[in-house]
Amino acid sequence: MNSTEQLLSINNLHTGFRIKDTYFDAVDGVSISLKRNEILAIVGESGCGKSTLATSIIGLHDHNKTRVEGEIIYKGINLAKLDEEKFNKVRGEEIGMIFQDPLSALNPLMRIGHQIEEGLAFHTKMTKEQRDKRVLELLTQVGISNPARIAKQFPHQLSGGMRQRVIIAIAISCKPNIIIADEPTTALDVTIQAQILDLLKDLQAETGAGIVLITHDLGVVAEVADRVAVMYAGQIIEEATVEGLFTNPLHPYTRSLFNSIPQMNSENEKLQVIQGIVPSLINLPRTGCRFSTRIPWISEGMHEENPTMHEVSPGHLVRCTCWQHFHFESEEGGITR
Amino acid sequence: MSFMQINDLKVYYPIRGGFFNTVVDQVTAVDGVTLEFEKGKAYGLVGESGCGKSTTGKSIIGLEKITSGSIIYEGQNVTHNRRGRGSSYNRDIQMIFQDANSSLNPRKRVQDIIAEPIRNFLKLSPDEEKRKINELLAIVGMNEDAKLKYPHEFSGGQKQRIGIARAIACNPKLIIADEPVSALDLSVQAQVLNFMKDIQQEFGLSYLFISHDLGVVKHMCDHISIMYKGRFVESGSRKDIYTNPQHIYTKRLLSAIPDVNPIGREERKKERIEVEANYAANHKNYYDETGKVYDLKKLSTTHFVAMSAHEKGGI
Ligand SMILES: Nc1ncnc2c1ncn2[C@@H]1O[C@H](COP(=O)(O)OP(=O)(O)OP(=O)(O)O)[C@@H](O)[C@H]1O
Ligand SMILES: Nc1ncnc2c1ncn2[C@@H]1O[C@H](COP(=O)(O)OP(=O)(O)OP(=O)(O)O)[C@@H](O)[C@H]1O
Ligand code: SF4
Ligand SMILES: [Mg+2]
Ligand SMILES: [Mg+2]
Description:
Bound molecules: adenosine-5'-triphosphate, iron/sulfur cluster, magnesium ion
Oligomer: heterodimer
Largest interface: A-B, 65 and 60 residues
Radius of gyration of chain B: 21 Å
Low-confidence stretches of chain B: none
Distance between the termini of chain A: 40 Å
Shape of chain A: globular
Number of strands of chain A: 12
CATH class of the domain at 2-221 in chain B: Alpha Beta
Shape of chain B: globular
Low-confidence stretches of chain A: 333-337
CATH topology of the domain at 2-221 in chain B: Rossmann fold
Strand order of the largest sheet of chain B: 6-7-8-3-9-10-12-11
Structural class of chain B: alpha/beta
CATH architecture of the domain at 2-221 in chain B: 3-Layer(aba) Sandwich
Helix content of chain B: 25-40%
Order of helices and strands of chain B: EEEHEEHEHHHHEHEHEEHHHEE
Strand content of chain A: 15-25%
């Protein structure tokens, strides 16, 4: 299998939600690609557009209230312009999605086993018997210890983490080429988390799938990702290999993010917080530097007027150039890194 | 002195099935949990997914039926009247729910969601109520324009903050926080955790803090209990658990914590697999014939570990 093969290529994607009569872009000009066999992590502040990016790729949003523009190229077709009927085939079979919110992604009135089987019936030629067997297999794979009982239960009878694992089982059931995992392990304990991440990696080794992993757990990113994109206010502000980003974070937002991690040996200290709040969709600044209000001690003149991405070293891209002059408020001025 | 004691709490869920939808089986979700809460302290509850943490929390605030055991609050046995309207227990014990989405009424605007406990328990004028809501939104770092919106218009993390604003609205004594920050990004998480610590100090608030993030638990909690299949396998001070873990399940959990450093991840994976193999080979010694966790034995004034009756001292 060619590991550098481009699987998905997103170009200048804009996804906007209609509020009253105006569309406001929650994803505002995102370009990123995903290769075969790659785990691309997407991190960023709550509300920065990660889930919107994910649902755009898989074409799941309310068409009456959402506008998707730009390109999402998969196997030569633009998914952003694909009609619903064709998309139904792509979903599940070609692209599997693990949703952030498991409860609303499951049908409350349908037994777990049936929900997993449904996708298999739609996308594969398996017999009923084969499907039933595969359901139990999948539940076991995601670490559920009594699959036969769980298959007969309804979503509300499962714990949060068990529901999450059911969603994962559904997403991987047809061995898709692309898996989009939106906070797949947030609801899981660390041992199951490790098990699920290993499972995704095994599956990847088997099928060569590309995985988009959305998470705010930088530990998880460090453990499994190949490449990382950091988003802020609808845009990607830094992109690098996992080593590149963790050893040399450049953008002020990325550096602030790393600063907020509760360290295992700093129990009583105050955690570092980024000043101010993420502007809501309507109030999002659309020109100039979107992060400048969060670092007011950096003078206006330091920011680019319309920050664009610059390749700082091979594969390491950063929006704007002000990072060269950035320092934390507590630090003295000048270049402190 | 503790203001609240939970004694040998058990919660079983009936499983219905068959033709007449009769009870055919039961799930032992919580199987003998004992806990007490002191003013101003934070208690961590960590454990396998599905081990009964949320059920413990929900049964304490009165959302699940208690099968047996008791809850004593300020000297009163409240086991069977936890949800009395306007009762002080009902106001003083609040919960932040794991599933922010389903705990927020989709048909209500944010301002009405947050105002609900205020209207139930505090008698405020409309102006005072408005000010209070603005104050709460500011505390959780949200814009005032959020007030008129509905839950579906928010991201996962934003919804969680709405749930937190509602829980702290009436200055509770104990907040059961079920994965309160797991949907939040790091900076907002830091903001919420700092805030939770601030109000803890200011009002002498206590927490039952349920989380999978052992870094967050370490940061927040004075006392930590590790739960497995409805029971505690180990319970101790932060130091006991992180520097001197005794139970094989605790050790397994600690070894699976992801490290914020991509360098050395292959070696860490190997180590993790070793600990897993050791667990698979030896875990039987740590549970009885039926797979049940042994009763807790006292190792020190703060540190308790589940071990069989004939086991002496450290395992
Ligand atoms: N259906 C919708 N209608 C209107 N606005 C929406 C809708 N869904 C999301 N938004 C807004 O779009 C922005 C991006 O939301 P999104 O859910 O993509 O964030 P996210 O990065 O996934 O955040 P989190 O980490 O909290 O899950 C937010 O400001 C959110 O309030
Ligand atoms: N309403 C219900 N009916 C039947 N069984 C239930 C019900 N609610 C929970 N359970 C079962 O009780 C057990 C404990 O569930 P609980 O939600 O307390 O777990 P948890 O420790 O909070 O897990 P997680 O970390 O995944 O949230 C699980 O086996 C679950 O399937
Ligand atoms: S000017 Fe550029 S680098 Fe500086 S904070 Fe803004 S976007 Fe970031
Ligand atoms: Mg999201
Ligand atoms: Mg739970």
